[in-house]
């Protein structure tokens, strides 16, 4: 189900709580909402649709990917980016890393590790910031 985009900065500033199997429907709603906004959005975190669980979805080089409880465990090559967000007006500067290694859980809640670089890494960092309650 496509959900309304949350713009309440007080809610968006709250740290997300760990997600579990009961949150699979929320992840599907998040995917549906991202797909509905695909012309102007490449990733979303659950708090952007009013859900406080630690779930992100993003365009991974043409395929949508869901991560439950993502954590960046390694990063390298910092740079400054300028980003926008569906939940916020305008663009802002953000410190990003060219390469990140992420620990996360898939839809079966199996722990996985994957390294991402470039644009995909930047998207993931933005969405994980949402999970941390950090607004760009």
CATH architecture: Alpha-Beta Complex
Write down the overall geometry.
globular
CATH C-level name = Alpha Beta
Q: Tally the helices.
A: 3
Report the radius of gyration as a whole number of Å. Answer: 14 Å
Q: Classify the beta-strand content into a percent band.
A: 35-45%
Overall average pLDDT: 96
Walkthrough of the structure:
By secondary structure, this protein is an alpha+beta fold. It has a single domain (9-131), classed as Alpha-Beta Complex (Peptide Deformylase). The protein has 3 helices and 5 strands, in the order ααβββββα. It has a 5-stranded antiparallel beta sheet. β2 (55-60) and β3 (63-85) form a beta hairpin. It starts with 8 loop residues before the first helix and ends in a 5-residue tail after the last helix. The mean pLDDT is 96.
Present the secondary structure layout.
Blueprint: H1 9-12, H2 24-36, E1 43-45, E2 55-60, E3 63-85, E4 88-105, E5 111-117, H3 118-131
Antiparallel strand pairs: 1-2, 2-3, 3-4, 4-5
